[in-house]
Amino acid sequence: MFKNREYVSLLVADQDNNSIKSKRSIWRLWNQLSRLQRTLLYIILILGIIISLYILSNIFETENNKLIEKHSPIVEFNNVLPQSYSTKPNSKVDVDNNARQGVVQVVQGVLEHPNNQNVNLKDDAPKYFTGPTNTRQIAVVNAFKHAWKGYKTFAWGHDHLKPISASYSNWFGVGLTIIDSLDTMYIMNLQEEYEEAREWVEQKLTFDIPNDVNLFEITIRVLGGLLSIYHLTSDKMYLDKARDLGERLLPCFNTDSGIPYSDINLRTGLAHAPKWSPDSSTSEVTTIQLEFRDLSRSTGDSRFEEVASKISDHVHELPKKHGLVPIFINALSGKFRQYSTITMGARGDSYYEYLLKQWLQTGKTIDYFRDDYLQAMKGAQEVLMKRTPASNLLFIGELLGSDDNFKPKMDHLTCYLSGTLALGVHNGLPRHHLSIAEDLLTTCYQMYARQPTFLAPEIAYFNLQDKTAADLYVKSGDSHNLLRPEFIESLWYMAEIVPENRTRYQEWGWKIFQAFENFTKVTNGYTSIANVRNIKQTRPLDKMESFFLAETLKYLYLLFRDENQEISLDEYVVNSEAHFIPIKF
Ligand code: DMJ
Fold it and tell me: Which partner for 179 in 225, 287, 290, 495 could form a disulfide, CB atoms 3.0-4.6 Å apart?
């Protein structure tokens, strides 16, 4: 032991001697250097120190970023991300503490896809929404939450809530209200509700069910709803579901004419005409193109766009009256039913809407969409639009039978047209369309304002004969209100496109929202009512349609935004169920 210690101490002494020797020799060497050589060495030394400091500061910054990510509001940002995405440290986030729920916007950055694909924010990145920014928007969000609570409690996973009987009804059996509401919740920044809905879609939604569905309705509500939320979030789970649904709908199009059958069994693929008619509805077969085209563009599978475009091409070639179309078409012959009604309301409406929107979706490259739309609007002016003698209200009537008899009847559904006309003007179509849009908007507002409930009936008739008689009247069988969106939809477009009138349109929307609150809000949600003409006998119908959440509340929310929209009419076409389809080609 002792010997070992001695040995160790001798060794240390030897090392010291060596190091003193080497220090002396370095000093000697240094003194032997010329001034120039010494200066060069000084420069190298200083550069070395600078580089080391730079490296150290970078390491520090990275550590600091990790800490910020852990403790700063970016945690909130991560909460609103779709589940399958995570931020990379270089994502930059703006947090505005003024907003009620915290304004969180991605300014720039890269998101990491689970499959290790980097998704560029410019193209496919999720969009983020601030949540409500004023009291009216908050009121609408609260209305949504109330409706959602009722649906969740009594109808979860079923198509519709029956708020009076605290139960549910099924139409297609695909949880329609959940899917139709996804993008509304996302746009309202209702994170908790959105997440539970997303989880249901991922885990419970299946289209492998033996149910008959209506091609048009399931396309605008479900396919459109899934595509919209897919584009807003970039969450591929939604696209997979959309593709599955699209595949199952394809047998509808196996007809000689290419005009699809109206109904199909999701499991067997057996397609057929509606039970009540040999024909399909014209608006139905011409209001699936935005969604099918987008499905092709999103999946790279061209079949969906092909079958949908074939219908447009075919209908384009059919003879029309003043550019206007009869409301029934036969899937086997591919021809319109002779003498069927011409209307811009039920079964005709969205044919015109989708002419314009398809023109926009395809980058204004397919001229016949625009030309057919313009011809139809001209025809409508010539043969469908009239004014009441009393107050000069502009309305759109219908043509009936072989003689094209004019009927001064207008569905509330027709009120979508102001929005469509305004969108056309926004895209360079004739300016005078805007004054038609404004006049029609006033008429639709009067359909609400002249009812004791301040809610519009399903259908109104207009008085053409007598200057002293009321402009419009409602038949008792038409006096129901199903919580429909069309007028609010048009208010939103008009507020966007004619911003100088925004405040007026917001006032109108607010009055109608209050009427919904007063006469359709019940303990477990919102209900359609049978009678808008008597505040004491509204006769609740015990149904909350999915479009109330998908459209009516969404459009109200968008209408009440004070400044620029978070979602631009130049970037999206909005489908017939208020779902957002990007314009990209
Ligand atoms: C919605 O399903 C769609 O807007 C459709 O185009 C017409 N009807 C309802 C809303 O009223």
Answer: 225
